[in-house]
## 1
Amino acid sequence: MRLSQYFLPVLKETPKEAQIASHRLMLRAGMIQQSSAGIYSWLPLGKRVLDKISNIVREEQERSGALEILMPTIQPAEIWQESGRYDDYGAEMLRVTDRHDRAMLFGPTNEEQVTDIFRSHVRSYKSLPLNLYHIQWKFRDEVRPRFGIMRGREFLMKDAYSFDLDADGARKAYNKMFVSYLKTFARMGLTAIPMEADTGPIGGDMSHEFIILAETGESGVYFHKDWLQADLLADIDYASDLQPFVDKFISIYARADEKHDPDNCPVSDLDLMTMRGIEIGHIFYFGAKYSAAMGANVSGPDGKIVPVHMGSYGIGVSRLVGGIIEASHDDKGIIWPDSVAPFGVAVVNLKPGDKICDKTCETLYSDLIETSADPLLDDRDERPGAKLAAMDLIGIPWQIVVGPRGMQNSVVEVKRRKTGETFEVSPSEALKLVSNVA
Ligand code: ATP
Ligand code: MG
């Protein structure tokens, strides 16, 4: 992408309305634009990151065996009346009426919709296990939308729904999602801590929230200091028995403050850490809550007809954009992990119009396109300082800076955004450097 032909409305001033780093930086980097409270447009740079994150989520869902569908944003009220949640959901639900006076709603979540799909087609345990997911916009009329896209009213969520014959099968489905979440977040450079969460009105159910640590997080969290060791995230095959693996994680203490009881905490004061965190995912096993209410039944091997066991598994895809920035930025701007960066490398031409600089940049740019490094060429007619500051602000992992002084010795400067390290190398060595690590 050539920056001269791109739409990157960076802001020089710090926006006053933004209270936390990620919100400030997303506005300054021209990633989002507020439409109304808690509702945002995603501009080109932001959309790229949102797509990168969605794709990592999608890949790990597919690897775990879940199947992608796409359910609508607008749902009929009837299915929510069947489950009993139409009245329970309260003011967070955006209710609309169509021209025929039918009650509709903008989905805050999709348990009812997916249960309706399931009951229309599945009759036998032979079609199980089944896990259907989608990545779709949700609407919740939050009382206090804030922190930009972190707590929005309209937000992008990945939600998966598992169907099993019995509790044992449902547990396996739960474990798969548990592991897939750890892998998903690790690929984004995040250590997400699964915390036992409230299980709601039905006893015996399981639920975990996945929380990343950040000073600006909305939840207070307590956890054993072992969680700070990243090597807990060993690789694992979905086909193997995941129970021991999941047990190992669950055995390391971690609770959000509403579930932490200081008088009954198994961890010594010395080992207990307390910090703030951001909830980026939530998994839930709720058995037959919706299937029983909505008549989603299957026959088992013994011929008995039973309501199917379900679980639901959410990831805050748009919230993750902010979460990653909270976890990875400095006073100059965003520091994208390679896996979600909007562009892999920036080629900065310090002197457009200078023959050698132009030629070197063009060659680097087309070579980088060849190697799929997804380059951004800063070919704008701007002050060098402003260009370098913009690249730091938008957080591109590698910068190759081409200026007339270096060109006298046929060298360019390669900068790693994360560490600030710089290397003076020939253009061909620069190519190798950024392609090997990225
Ligand atoms: P929270 O406690 O933050 O309101 P929740 O328990 O209501 O979250 P779920 O219904 O489990 O959230 O939704 C799944 C995921 O969607 C959450 O883990 C979170 O990452 C994301 N999410 C929920 N509400 C919002 C919101 N208003 N804005 C952005 N992301 C959200
Ligand atoms: Mg909520």
## 2
Amino acid sequence: MKIKIKQGNIKEAKADAVVLFSYEDDSMPAKTMTEFNALSNNLIRKMIDAGDITGKTKEIQVIFLPDAQNTKRVMVVGLGKKNEADLEKIRGAFALAAQKARSMKLSSMATTPDMAGLDIPGELIAAAAVEGMKLGLYRFTAFKTEEPDNVNDIEELVIWSEEKKGTAKLKEAVAEAGHVADAVIFARNLVSMPSNEMTPKDMAREAIAIGTNHKNIEVKVLDEKQMKKLGMNALLGVTRGSREEAQFIIMDYQGTKGNEPPIVLIGKGLTFDSGGISIKPAENMEEMKTDMAGGAAVMGAIMAAARLNIPRRIIGLIPATENMPGGLAYKPGDVLKTLSGLTVEVISTDAEGRLILADALTYARRFKPAAVIDLATLTGACIVALGENVIGMMGTDQKLKDRLKHAAEITGEKLWELPLWEDYCEAIQSDIADLKNVGGRPAGAITAGAFLSKFAKDYPWVHLDIAGPSWLKQDRPYTPKGASGVGVRLLIQMLKNWSDN
Ligand code: BES
Ligand code: ZN
Ligand code: ZN
């Protein structure tokens, strides 16, 4: 989808459809609507009066403009109550319009932030339009050999502005939103890929390609021999049961000439989690190809950081491996000596995420980071606690937690903090080692976080458990079911706001 900014009145647009909003309590919120109503020979007004247009969210009406020379149709999308309108609803509304347009085989769309009649700055509305449309149209077709019904996705979106001086701002916002959406789509694609096509080496290859295509990103990949030399025995323990070689991916984005300490992002890169010897039940096991969603989000965020020229050094660390029950697999009862020196008794080989993250968290110390954030599809318990659509947050630094909360409010990703009181560490005491990797059923998401906290030393740290929202079972407004790319927008928003406070 090409996105253009044009200066002028949107009535000049030559589009298959123009997108306009209507509210439950304000059916014609701006002059744009009045003008298109005139072009429709008052049909829009009549539809409002007849109750065909109510302004309720998720309502969309397509009105054909019989005599119009330029635009052929108007799509009136409901946005609910006017004083409750926000960017999240706007993203959803544009996703709905785009999906409708695709189902009608339309190829060009137009809109203007002015039509919303809201106090929200036009560039934010335009950015939400781009994100909503691009993300709402996403589908994963890599393995479809037959073309889907409507292959011709929307080719063009033109955003109009009557004010000349506003167009530069709009251009910048729209370009940024495009990069961010592309990064989310990149992450969704990686997560959607089956594990036979997205092995640890494939992940490393994707990271290296990002490095090749962005001049400020350097990528280094450690192989098992190098991990062994360093002493990453937790990661090596997890990978023993697999025939695929583990990879420790390091992406180093240098966006500043300054020497400030970097921000380290760590992503769990479990390309398939069978559970290992503590094998998972067969039902839904196919979903465990998504256990690298944290790693994919980190890769996407670093890529977008480079495209947005974020003025920071940002390092991505992705321990990538399979968890398989091969003949050499690590076993319950085994003791692993982690990179930090702490020993861990393995209770369940299915609690493997915290083991590979332990070594990555320790590795992060060498960068003397200003902050470390890890993203991981870590526990089913987090889904039990918060539901499928919510990121569970734990951490040791209030300011960093606040940064993430604030970013999540802007991006619409739902995030909720769980406590990390010292008491939870009792559950992970082992009789024979320093720690054990499972703390029992109570507070399973938190005891996993408590385990990680033993390795997240010497820097501000936050852990995000994305087990729920990384893979949607049902469509959401601009996230079709399947891989969501959760975390990408959150991280970028946080990085963009970093120097604000
Ligand atoms: N990858 C899973 C967690 C998960 C579950 C992600 C559902 C996405 C959806 C993780 O490695 C795991 O198996 N965790 C165990 C931990 C338990 C053994 C302490 C779990 O949650 O059951
Ligand atoms: Zn597991
Ligand atoms: Zn896992």
